[in-house]
Amino acid sequence: MNIPPSKAITDIRAAPIQQMHLYWLGKSGEQQMPSRAQIAPEDITKLLPYLILVDLEAEPFRIYYRLVGTAVQQRNNRNATGHYLDELSYPTAAEITATYRWVHDQHQPYFGRANLASRIGHPIIFEYGIWPLSDDGRQVNKCVAMEVYHGISSRAVLRDVLKS
User: Fold this and answer.
1) pLDDT(164) > 50
2) Domains of the chain: which residue ranges?
3) In 3D, which of 7, 11, 15 has the Cα closest to residue 108?
4) Is the separation of the CB atoms in 125 and 7 below 8 Å?
5) Order of strands across the sheet with 62-68?
6) In contact, 160 and 75? CB cutoff 8 Å
7) pLDDT digits (tens, 9 = 90+) for 17-73
8) Is the distance from CB of 156 to CB of 79 less than 8 angstroms?
9) Reduced 3-state DSSP string for the chain
10) The domain over range 9-163 is classified in CATH as 3.30.450.20
């Protein structure tokens, strides 16, 4: 599946995503990407509700949700923590998988924005970022991600989007 090109971080208006990117860059230092051990929750407490930590399995390619922040859980009306993506019946699972595979293969962050208004008639902008992590400094085996929604006032609205 083809995915749209990654947005530039300057195109993302969600402050938590911009803050996470700066944090990730700072932790990367001279490395291409940091390890999961370098991501200290106490450094980013205000970002934790939007945070998603995943493990990536290479063959077959699978995404395991190690941790899903409370804001993401509320907006998706479920907690994916402790589950593989392919167990969750998300209607966008193929797109999600393709995006994580891109991060895995390219060793680069990916930023995106989706306008969900066309599905339900409400102005909802969904922005996200996915940053690669590596235990050995070479292979991407984990990611930290964030999801931020703009213009949404109710969980039920997003739940309706996810059902379609």
Assistant:
1) no
2) 9-163
3) 7
4) no
5) 83-84, 62-68, 51-57, 142-150, 125-133, 110-115
6) no
7) 999 999 999 999 999 999 999 999 999 999 999 999 999 998 999 999 999 999 999
8) no
9) CCCCCCCCHHHCCCHHHHHHHHHHHHHHCCCCCCCHHHCCHHHCHHHHHHEEEEEEECCCCEEEEEEECHHHHHHHCCCCCCEEHHHCCCCCHHHHHHHHHHHHHHCCCEEEEEECHHHHCCCCEEEEEEEEECCCCCCCCEEEEEEEEECCCCHHHHHHHHHC
10) yes
Query: What residue type is assigned to position 78 of the chain?
Result: R
User: Token pair of 131, please?
Assistant: 């940053």
Q: Which two tokens mark 83? A: 């589950």
pTM given for the model: 0.88
